[in-house]
Amino acid sequence: MEPIPLMTPYKMGKFDLSHRVVLAPLTRQRSYGYVPQPHAILYYSQRATKGGLLIAEGTGVSDTAQGFTDSPGIWTKEHVEAWKPIVDAVHKKGGIFFCQMAHVGRVSNYDYQPNGQAPISSTDKQIPPQTQLDGTVTEYSPPHGLTTNEIPDIVNDFRLAARNAIEAGFDGVEIHGAHGFLIEQFMKDSSNSRTDKYGGSLENRCRFALEIVEAICNEIGPDRVGIRLSPFTDYMECFDSDPETLGMYMVQSLNKFNILYCHMIEPRMTIVEGRYHIPHRLSLMRKAFNGTFLAAGGYDREEGNKVVAEGYTDLVVYGRLFLANPDLPRRFELNAPLNKYNRLTFYTSDPVEGYTDYPFLEEST
Ligand SMILES: Cc1cc2nc3c(=O)[nH]c(=O)nc-3n(C[C@H](O)[C@H](O)[C@H](O)COP(=O)(O)O)c2cc1C
User: What residue intervals traverse the membrane (predicted)?
Assistant: First the structure.
């Protein structure tokens, strides 16, 4: 039988992966009061496989980092203790588990901030209200553009959070440098009009991201550090006039730190001849990056096998399909049919429905 490219082993630094199907970071908003809950033990262990890589949902690095109800944190002792049994359960199944270090920056409002203060950002430019899929409108408060002197404290928050993640037992961390959140607010020219050493030139706009990378590498070692980037996306009014150059500058700079992996989001899918089409614009960055490369955004089994076989990426990251199919690697191995995801329960707070009740193959056949 022909080997299935997605199911072939891969050595990612010191981690022996038995296949290339990675769980994407997925915010599920079921960590009540920002504290990870026992129901996450089942959720993550359902998706764990021996030698499979899981990336935990966006996890707040500090009390200014939050912008979603009940997304988890990792800045207090209570958070660390609450993560431990979840990480243990993944390890018991042989999984490799990274924690996504997140700070939403201005994608927040006074209600999520300590003492009702303004959310922090690269800028004091507010995001206009956004209409959600369910028709509700989300409002964002006017942010406080960080002063130059305030920035080292935020970098330090990321460093401490990474230390906490390792203390909780995670194998490593993924820095969330994507999707219009704080790090991207600095990187992209639509949301950075600063005139200090963190604004203006590309080098200056990427300085904040790279200071975080450096601080975390010094704290936990570069062999446990990954980063997620989305130079092509335009979420939350964050876009760049030259995404290719931004992406290339970042991967070349990351090489200097020898980090473990770079995880990149594809540009938005387009419909070509009635079928969704992934633009595959990450080639140059993949070639320039020295570590492991992860690609995400719109992949299915066929497209994932294709890009691994072609060497376009080392690993393929699955979001919605893995959310709805706890045994996704096995289904890919068998080319079995997939459960459909239910968008309506992505972010609801029920500890079971739409979370741990998606059936396994045996149950659905
Ligand atoms: C419910 C949901 C929650 C998400 N939460 C996060 C998150 O916490 N961090 C992140 O970087 N991306 C997040 N994303 C984006 C996914 O990681 C992924 O990039 C996206 O779903 C595209 O991949 P897919 O086509 O395989 O679903 C989320 C997506 C969904 C659907």
Answer: none
CA atoms of 280 and 295, how far apart (whole Å):
9
Q: Is the pLDDT of residue 365 over 60?
A: no
Q: Could you tell me the pLDDT band of residue 278, with boundaries at 50, 70 and 90? A: confident
What distance in Å separates the CA atoms of residue 301 and residue 318, rounded to the nearest whole number? 10
What dihedral angle (degrees, nearest 10) is formed by the CA atoms of 32, 69, 60, 318?
100
Residue 364 pLDDT: 64
DSSP 161-190: HHHHHHHTT-SEEEEEE-TTSHHHHHHSTT
Q: Which amino acid is at 276?
A: Y
> For 159-202, how does the pLDDT look when each residue is reduced to its tens digit (9 = 90+)?
999 999 999 999 999 999 999 999 999 999 999 999 999 999 99
**Quick check: 59 pLDDT over 90?**
yes
Closest residue CA from atom 22 of ligand 1: 297
Three-class DSSP category at 21: strand
Atom number of ligand 1 nearest to Cα 178: 11
Atom of ligand 1 lying closest to residue 298 CA: 25
User: Residue 41: phi, psi to the nearest 5?
Assistant: -60, -50
Distance CA 121, CA 143 (A): 6
pTM above 0.85, yes or no: yes
With a 6 Å cutoff on the Cβ, whether 177 touches ligand 1 is: no
Regarding the beta carbon of 30 and ligand 1, being less than 6 Å apart is answered: no
Two structure tokens written together for 17: 């992966």
| Distance (Å) from CA 156 to ligand 1 centroid | 26
Q: How is residue 92 written in tokens?
A: 């018991």
Give the tens place of pLDDT for each residue, 101-132.
999 999 999 999 999 999 999 999 999 999 88
Our answer on whether the CB atom of 341 is closer than 6 Å to any ligand 1 atom is: no
Residue with CA nearest ligand 1 atom 21: 319
Residue 33: CB atoms within 10 A of its CB come to 10
